[in-house]
Write a structure and sequence with these properties.
binds nicotinamide-adenine-dinucleotide; 10 helices; 45% helix; alpha/beta; 9-stranded mixed beta sheet; globular; Rossmann fold; 314 residues; oxidoreductase activity, acting on the CH-OH group of donors, NAD or NADP as acceptor
Length: 314
C-alpha cells in the first residue's frame, strides 16, 4: 500500500495561496484551517456554525501567522449554492484567483431508522426527511462545490503575487473529505455511507478529467476514527478497546499534503492512527485479481474508448 507522508518542507509551497474551505469551524476542518494559516496561506473558510467559525477566525488572527497567512470566515450552509459561491467570490475578490478548494463539511446520521423494531408497514409510510438532508450535505453539496471549484480554479488572472504562475512546484487542486465509510461497509450508516461512497465517485470522475480539462488535481481523504464530536457515540468503546485514533491534525496534515503535492492526483487517502495510505493505488494495481484478467484487459480498452466521457448523452 502506498503511504502518503506529510512533508513540512513541500507544504511550504502553500504560502501565499488562496484557499477556499467548507466545514472549517471545528474538528478536522478547523485543524486544516490552522495549518494552512500558519503555512502562510490566505484561507477563506465557511461553516454553518457561525459562533465557532468567528471564534476560530478571531483566535487565529490574535496569534498572527508566522508566514504572513490571512484568514477570513463566512457563514455558509453548504446546501445553499449562493452561499458556497459567496465564499469563492471572497477569495477571488481579494486575490484574483483560487488555488485550492477543500470540502470538509459533513454530518453523521441518526441511528435506528432501518432497524426492524422501528420499520414496519405503518412507519414506512412516513418519509424519513433526514435521509435527503444527509445526502444533500454529504454528497450533493460536495459535487456542486467541486464543480464550482473547477470554474474558479481555472480563472487565474495571474495578477496577484504568490500565485500559482510564480511557483512552478505547485498545481491547483480540489480535496474532498470522504470517509472509511466511503470505501468499506459501514453498518448502520445507510445515508452517510452511501453519500461518502458518492464522494469517492466524484473524485474518480474528476481525476483524469480535472488535470486534462482544467489543470486541476482531485483527491479524497478517507479518515478512520478521528477524535471529533462526530465520533462521540462510539468514542468511549473505541478508546477502551485501544483502537487506532487520529487527531484532527493528523487528518488535516493529509489534506494539506494532497493540496500541496503536485504528484498526488486521484488518491483516496485512508487515514488511520495518524498515517495516510492511498487505497486507490491498490485497487487499480489489483484490477486483474478482482475483476479477472480477461475482463480487466477489455475493461481498460473500454475506458480508453470512453476517454473523458463527453458523449454519454446523445
Ligand atoms: N471524525 C471522524 O471519525 C470522521 C471519520 C470519517 C470521516 N469524517 C469526515 O470528516 C469531515 C469533518 O468531520 P469532523 O469529524 O471534523 O466533524 P465535525 O462535526 O467536528 O466537523 C464538521 C463540520 O462541518 C460543519 N457542517 C456540517 N454541516 C454543514 C452545513 N450544512 N453547512 C456548513 N457546514 C456544515 C459543522 O458545523 C462542523 O464544523 C466530515 O466530512 C466527516 O464526515 C470524520
Amino acid at each position: 500500500m502506498a503511504e502518503i507522508k506529510y512533508s513540512e518542507t513541500l507544504t511550504d509551497n502553500l504560502r501565499g495561496k488562496a484557499v477556499v474551505l467548507n466545514g472549517g469551524a471545528q474538528g478536522i476542518g478547523a485543524a486544516t484551517v490552522e495549518i494552512l494559516y500558519n503555512k502562510g496561506a490566505n484561507v477563506f473558510f465557511g461553516d454553518w456554525n457561525e459562533e465557532r467559525g468567528r471564534k476560530l477566525e478571531q483566535d487565529l488572527k490574535a496569534g498572527a501567522s508566522e508566514n504572513g497567512g490571512t484568514v477570513s470566515f463566512r457563514r455558509v450552509d453548504v446546501r445553499s449554492h449562493e452561499m458556497q459561491l459567496a465564499l469563492f467570490d471572497d477569495a477571488m475578490r481579494a486575490h484574483g484567483r483560487v488555488d485550492v478548494a477543500i470540502q470538509c463539511a459533513g454530518i453523521s446520521e441518526p441511528s435506528g431508522w432501518f432497524e426492524p423494531e422501528d420499520l414496519n408497514l405503518e412507519t414506512v409510510r412516513n418519509e424519513p426527511t433526514p435521509v435527503k438532508d444527509n445526502i444533500e450535505i454529504n454528497l450533493t453539496s460536495v459535487l456542486l462545490f467541486a464543480r464550482m471549484a473547477l470554474a474558479y480554479l481555472r480563472s487565474d488572472d495571474g495578477s496577484s503575487s504568490g500565485g500559482s504562475k510564480t511557483n512552478e512546484d505547485f498545481s491547483k487542486s480540489i480535496v474532498l473529505v470522504s470517509s472509511i465509510a466511503g470505501i468499506t461497509e459501514a453498518p448502520g450508516l445507510f445515508a452517510y455511507s452511501s453519500a461518502k461512497h458518492g464522494v469517492i465517485g466524484a473524485m474518480r470522475s474528476l481525476r483524469k478529467f480535472g488535470p486534462v480539462k482544467y489543470g486541476v488535481r482531485a483527491n479524497a481523504i478517507c479518515p478512520w476514527a478521528t477524535d471529533t464530536q462526530l465520533l462521540s457515540g462510539v468514542k468511549e468503546m473505541w478508546v477502551r478497546e485501544k483502537m487506532p485514533m487520529n487527531t484532527p491534525a493528523d487528518v488535516a496534515r493529509m489534506i494539506v499534503q494532497c493540496a500541496a503535492d503536485g504528484n498526488i492526483n486521484g488518491a483516496a487517502v485512508f487515514v488511520a492512527g495518524g498515517r495516510g495510505f492511498d487505497t486507490e493505488e491498490g485497487i487499480d494495481r489489483t484490477l486483474p485479481q478482482w475483476m479477472g484478467e480477461e475482463n480487466a484487459q477489455v475493461f481498460l480498452r473500454g475506458q480508453e474508448l470512453l476517454g473523458l466521457g463527453k458523449n454519454w448523452a446523445k
